[in-house]
Amino acid sequence: MKMNKNQLYTVVALCAILLFIVIADNCFDAFTLRVFNLCAIYIILALSLNLLNGFTGLFSLGHAGFMAVGAYVCALLTMPPELKEMNYFLTPIVPILKNITLPFFPSLLIAGLASALVGLLIGAPVLRLKDDYLAIATLGFSEIIRVLITNAQPITNGAQGLKGLPRFSTTYTVWAVAGVVVLFMVLLMRSSYGRAMKAVRDDDLAAEAMGINVFKVKVTSFTVSSFWAGIGGALLGHMITTIDPKMFTFSLTYNIVLIVVLGGVGSITGSVLAAILVTVLMEALRFLDEPMNFLFIHTGGLPGLRMVVFSVLLMIVVIFRQKGIMGGKELSWASVAAFRERHSRKGRPQ
Amino acid sequence: MTDIVLSTKGLSMRFGGLTAVSDLNISIGKNEIVGLIGPNGAGKTTAFNVITGMYRPSAGQVFYRDKDITGSKPHVITEKGIARTFQNIRLFRSMTVLENVLVGCNLSISSGLFSATLNLPAYRKKEAAAREFAMALLDKVGLTEAAGKEATSLPYGQQRRLEIVRALATHPALLLLDEPAAGMNPQESLELMAFIHTLRDEFDLTIFLIEHHMQVVMGVCDHMYVLDYGITIAHGDPASIQKDPKVIEAYLGVDDAGNK
Prior knowledge:
heterodimer, A: 350 residues, mainly alpha, two-stranded antiparallel ribbon, 4 strands, globular, B: 260 residues, alpha/beta, Rossmann fold, 2 domains, six-stranded mixed β-sheet, five-stranded antiparallel β-sheet, 11 helices
């Protein structure tokens, strides 16, 4: 088969990304590498939320809950018994869980499946709601999951969390999973299933009249989204190596919603770009939280000031560019060429 | 006597104190074109919504080929072979013309999530067949060139045609058209009716259509039902409907003295 120009570009771009990942893994200092890998995890999380919010038109705010399920299931499966004994010093762990230790990849898969199961159980009743009601109900369930985790001490070690998780989320692991999720989303959206999801988003009445089982499509989307959220949560846990219920509050969901809205609801490439942008900015703007000196004005360190920047950014997007960076479209070689064409023409005198 | 495709028995739909459709009894034979006419707010669309499962009727039953389909979900009814269009066009906004038709083909491609996502051969074959079928349908209505355009960028008349094509993509035996000629001038309406006539012959369809303007459907319908305030006030062939005093009254009204 002969490759056309665009396919060649794609192969070259993929090689460049791969090379960059290898260089990053070998040359970046620990902090930069951590931020770099966090980008991959946020790509996974943003895409899984975009599947729901962007492509199926279901406004869900429950992502943190599913991440928590994934993170805890994976952690409990990978931690060796001695480590569990060290962690559960207040209330001993239930005996069944104590001696289970699985390798990382099976654990990751089980974490995803567990999260998908929770998604299915919550989705079935909650997806009968629409719009804001759905958002509030999913937010509520996410909080319920967090409270359950806080109180199920013999299983989750409660508010103390789990410490010293093995650092399984290496650069290659997280970026490989991110790659799989991007590929999955692209293929899904090209398939008849993706079309059905978009049809439900555009007009659920018409979709139903076309013979689409709207409820089933919604539940499927919710379950698949939960699956990837669980995987993302598990990867996050094994990267930070510490998890506790406080990690999975609404503000974590907010970060992901921010990425999805900034990138453009219903755009895969938008989510990827925004995930990288937001993750890098979150670290780059960290100086705002520290004490600052402007000639005469001294600020004594305002933790959370950088979040104000994101809030302002979100407001600007909502007011001036509701559709986000990519506006529901995808970045492709054709669109890049069109963009260059427009700008080179603008530069020339008429 | 032809065999009956769709019939209703004492079908009623009440919203609180308002009876939108009351005791509707229709019977549509195979390959007939049947009209449902009546003034604004007569309950025509409500009747369609009840038949297609969008509403569950307050009383009565709907039969499709002698099987009771009352209260079935809309997608189940579509699966059985009843497709519909909407009065206010409901195309999928973010999709191209071709994709809109492909959504209609969804029933014939229904594969598992995995075989669809992984683009397995069994799925690929169905998808290719669906695309071919969709393009053939678009060709029939002269929309081949527009296949890649955004559906909502089409002119109004073409959007109407696209909606009909999208409904045809579900392989229906019975097609319900809700005011297909709405917003068209008399000339366009007549062309559309001729088009509906050829559709019936080409796809071996039975057609049930709502129309607001009586004149438009006179030439095309085998027989018609007239609704007014949810009540069936007349039923018969176009010629007798045109002369029916009750129908004339419903459309033109009478003055206090009873003069028309």
